[in-house]
Design brief:
- The structure is a single chain.
- Helix content is about 5%, strand content about 30%.
- The chain has three domains: about 110 residues, Leucine-rich repeat, LRR (right-handed beta-alpha superhelix); about 180 residues, Alpha-Beta Horseshoe (Leucine-rich repeat, LRR (right-handed beta-alpha superhelix)), CATH 3.80.10; about 40 residues.
- Helix 1 packs antiparallel against helix 2.
- It is elongated, with a radius of gyration of 29 Å.
- The N and C termini lie far apart (about 75 Å).
- With about 375 residues, it is mostly beta strands.
Length: about 375
């Protein structure tokens, strides 16, 4: 395959004509006419591209002035069918891009580091891709493929979406909050990598998988509740979330991956659901502010150095659970004593367990849930 480069907007047709007139007009006139006819079609592209050898074109680079750009549907009379890996990488002046109906393949990192990009628009006749509110989806809008890095504020995943794709929100540093609706089952690998302004994420009750590195480097994320529907937390899913202070892991989770919460340096409390059976290597390493890890179930198997560096933390476990000793993963382990109320109380009172306070008004009797869930009125 032969890579071609388009001519940039550096040649003015009038200036070219003036220079040519100083030469032999009879000899060069046919060439001049050819250039004047062909030049506008060439300079409008501003793209690097490859002839795929099968009568189609792949865009491999962009050298235009930025702003809102439309990818041509044809180049040299051949359809543009692909946008290559990293084709628009680092195009910081690009604010919008329109993808024609001819494109059927978009490569990895195609719009990576396009920090001013706020809108991706897909031609309605495209058979593979679509767009909604400036966001890139597959045709059926069941997979969210790409969110523009420059798009700011809050975002709610549409109800049609079942999967958030690989690196879909990678580097969206102006994104502040996300609501992942109940239709979503899969949060893909590196989906929200380095969304450094993201403070709030709500995960719906249908999510089953949080992928590798899904929220890695979300340095403004404060708290996280993982619903009972989730069965696994991927390797490095929340590593380097340096503002994360509390995590509640749902009762459906069975495994916590390697490095899952590595270097969450502000993390103070973690509640681990009753179904967790394994915690990967270094899962909570360098969580220097960690004080309490509260387990609702039996003692899980541990990888290497799970709590390495968490020198102020204590492990708490519930009565009736098994596998516990006086230490766990190198940390002291003690019984998690949940509060039990005076059945005759009728006024507001303060209960405290392991340093956590709550106020309650009782009308009758009260007991704690032996699974470690919230106190219940009876």
């Amino acid at each position: 395959m032969k890579t071609k480069f388009s001519i940039a907007r550096t040649t003015c047709p009038k200036a070219m004509a003036g220079r040519l007139r100083t030469a032999c007009a009879k000899t060069l006139l046919p060439l001049l006419l050819f250039l004047l006819v062909m030049l506008p079609a060439v300079v409008q592209a501003q793209f690097n591209y490859t002839d795929n050898g099968d009568g189609t074109i792949t865009i491999t680079g962009y050298y235009g002035p930025g702003g809102a750009e439309t990818i041509p549907s044809t180049i040299d009379g051949m359809p543009v069918t692909s946008i290559g890996d990293g084709a628009f990488y680092g195009c910081t002046g690009l604010t919008g891009v329109t993808i024609p109906d001819s494109v059927t393949s978009i490569g990895d990192w195609a719009f990576f580091a396009c920090t001013s990009l706020t809108e991706i628009t897909v031609d309605a006749l495209n058979s593979v891709y679509s767009s909604l509110d400036g966001v890139l989806f597959d045709k059926s809008q069941t997979t969210l493929i790409g969110y523009p890095e420059g798009k700011a504020g809050s975002y709610a995943i549409p109800n049609s979406v079942t999967s958030i794709g690989y690196m879909a929100f990678d580097g969206c540093t102006s994104l502040t909050s996300v609501t992942i609706t109940h239709s979503v089952t899969t949060i893909g690998d590196w989906a929200f990598l380095s969304c450094t302004s993201l403070t709030s994420v709500t995960i719906g009750s249908s999510a089953t998988t949080i992928g590798v590195g899904a929220f890695c480097g979300c340095t403004s994320l404060i708290s996280m509740t993982i619903p009972d529907s989730v069965s696994s937390i991927g390797d490095g899913a929340f590593e380097f979330c340096s503002s994360l202070t509390s995590v509640t892991i749902g009762n459906g989770v069975t495994s916590i991956g390697t490095y899952a919460f590595l270097s969450c340096t502000s993390l103070t409390n973690v509640t681990v659901g009753k179904s967790v059976t394994s915690i990967g290597n270094w899962a909570f390493e360098a969580c220097y502010s960690l004080v309490g890890v509260y387990f609702k179930g039996n003692a899980p198997s541990l990888g290497s150095a799970v709590f390495n560096g968490d020198n102020n933390a204590t492990v708490y476990y519930l009565p009736g659970t098994t596998g516990w000793g006086t230490t766990f993963g190198g940390l002291p382990a003690v019984l998690w004593n949940l509060p039990v109320a005076d059945v005759s109380a009728t006024a507001a009172w303060l209960v405290s367990a392991n340093g956590t306070n709550a106020t309650a008004v009782l009308n009758g009797s009260r007991s704690y849930d032996p699974n470690g869930d919230a106190l219940q009125y009876l």
